[in-house]
Amino acid sequence: MISDIVVVGAGIVGAACARAFAQSGCRVVVLDRDAPASGTSAKGEGNLLVSDKGPGAELRLAQYAASLWPGVAAELAEELGAEFPAIEYERKGGLVVATTGEGARPLLDFAASQRDAGVDARAVSIAEALELEPHLNPDMTAAVHYPDDAQVQPVIATEALLASARNHGADIRPFVAVTGALRDATGRITGVSTTAGAVPAGAVILAAGPWSGEVSAMLGERLPVRPRRGNVLVTTRMPHRVFHKVYDGDYFGATQSSDAALQTSSVVESTAAGTVLIGSSREQVGFDERLRVAALREIAAKALRLFPFLAGASIMRSYGGFRPFMPDHLPVIGADHRTAGLWHASGHEGAGIGLSLATAELLVAEFLGRAAAIDAAPFRPDRASLAPYLDEVA
Ligand SMILES: Cc1cc2nc3c(=O)[nH]c(=O)nc-3n(C[C@H](O)[C@H](O)[C@H](O)COP(=O)(O)OP(=O)(O)OC[C@H]3O[C@@H](n4cnc5c(N)ncnc54)[C@H](O)[C@@H]3O)c2cc1C
Predict the structure, then answer these.
(1) Closest CA to 197 of 2, 3, 6
(2) Whole-model pTM above 0.90?
(3) Among protein residues, the one whose CA lies closest to atom 50 of ligand 1
(4) Do 3-71+154-225+328-393 and 94-147+227-325 agree at the fold level?
(5) pLDDT tens, position by position, for the chain (394 residues)?
(6) Hey, is 156 helix, strand or coil?
């Protein structure tokens, strides 16, 4: 079946959708009001984590995504050739540590619950943790090693997915903003109006990240996606002294919390280039981009507790972006139950890089009526956990 799909947003989620739909024979147009990969996908880290997710639907999506990344990374490298920069996929593993007496038991219990859900979560001794990370502060109370945690360079990964989509016939149109919906007499969405004219389509996939709430409203439907600001510090290049994704156990609490106030937890990792990324903060301040020194100070202080050697590191820059936050902590993936022709691929909060490929596969399966690899019901727009918030949005 040949269908016309418009994807709104050329971040990593839109890019993954564009590639998956184009590969399955659909004619795809991607619209972005800005340059591709210039939204949130360029403003975070590239962690592909299973370690921070408790048993449940999001973990199953992350496990599915983790199973897809190695194959897609290899396909992209082969298809795009040596002249295209590598997406830097690396299954380097994660090490989660507790730094307090009270933090040890919850971390170990959490890891046990993940093991029951099929995660490779290995409780290691302090000595084993120091073998994995020799520069880690030995003053820790528990540690869990997650060999399946991985990372990519998110901007290159987005560009590579778009390049592959283009190779499969997709038309990527930057600097075209979607302003509204085209509808037929039944109310079905039949395309979008844009700053460059009307773009008719059989289906519109909304993948506008933290802006999906406002774009959805332009298309006539409510969607409670809100921006959740996050900041990262970047050191200058240095010899590699951080070998895994290392974070303190507080991180899990921060990702699952809906608290609007500033929350920070330490996530430290090195990149292929030799810089160290130190994340990250979470706060709901709308789309306010002003630099917040208090957040940066807190992130830095917590990182020093993990890696004291960072006290001598130079910070080269700090950047931040807006995670697409959903009030029930699950992305929204699938056909809108209120308006025919509208599809959603949004709300991945701090995990959209990792979950992008799995999101695209679930959407394609639903669109083409194929069996999906995992149950997509928990992510559908009509799920019970989202219903109260759909009513709330003005
Ligand atoms: C500090 C920080 C750290 C993070 N770390 C990680 C991590 O380690 N791992 C991970 O998996 N995730 C991480 N994330 C989250 C991740 O970055 C997001 O979940 C992901 O990038 C969302 O991708 P997206 O494609 O949905 O949105 P975006 O990348 O924001 O793309 C949306 C696009 O929609 C476009 N758009 C908006 N309005 C319109 C319009 N009207 N018309 C046309 N186009 C429009 C925008 O220009 C934008 O390009 C982090 C986020 C932050 C802020």
Answers:
(1) 6
(2) yes
(3) 44
(4) no
(5) 446 999 999 999 999 999 999 999 999 999 999 999 999 999 988 999 999 999 999 999 999 999 999 999 999 999 999 999 999 999 999 999 998 888 899 999 999 999 999 999 999 999 999 999 999 999 999 999 999 999 999 999 999 999 999 999 999 999 999 999 999 999 999 999 999 999 999 999 999 999 999 999 999 999 999 999 999 999 999 999 999 999 988 655 555 556 666 777 788 999 888 999 998 888 888 998 888 888 899 999 999 999 999 999 999 999 989 999 999 999 999 999 999 999 999 999 999 999 999 999 999 999 999 999 999 999 999 999 999 998 775 5
(6) helix
Centre of ligand 1 to C-alpha 192, Å, is 21
DSSP 90: B
Cβ 239 vs Cβ 230: under 8 Å: no
Residue nearest to atom 3 of ligand 1 (CA): 44
CATH number for 94-147+227-325 (one of 3.30.1050.10, 3.30.9.10, 3.40.50.720, 3.40.50.2000): it is 3.30.9.10
Give the C-alpha distances (Å, rounded to integers) separating 107 from 58, 136, 141, 170, 304: 19, 18, 10, 45, 20
**Which residue's alpha carbon is nearest to atom 21 within ligand 1?**
41
Contacts 24+ apart (CB under 8 A), 79-88: 79/164, 79/167, 80/160, 80/163, 80/164, 84/160, 84/163, 85/153, 85/156, 86/153, 86/156, 87/152, 87/153, 87/156, 87/157, 87/160, 88/46, 88/151, 88/152, 88/153, 88/156, 88/271, 88/272
Tokens 């409780």 belong to residue: 123
Point out the ligand 1 atom lying closest to the alpha carbon of residue 346: 26
Ligand 1 within 6 A of 94 CB?
A: no
The answer to whether the beta carbons of residues 27 and 336 sit under 8 Å apart is: no
Q: Which residues pair with 335 in a beta bridge?
A: 343
Q: Indicate the fold that domain 3-71+154-225+328-393 takes in CATH.
A: FAD/NAD(P)-binding domain (3.50.50)
Contact 166, 143 (CB under 8 A): no
How many whole angstroms separate alpha carbon 285 and alpha carbon 349?
15
Phi, psi angles (nearest 5°) of residue 32:
-140, 140
Mutate to test the pocket of ligand 1, among 34, 58, 68, 211 (most ligand atoms within 8 A of CB): 211
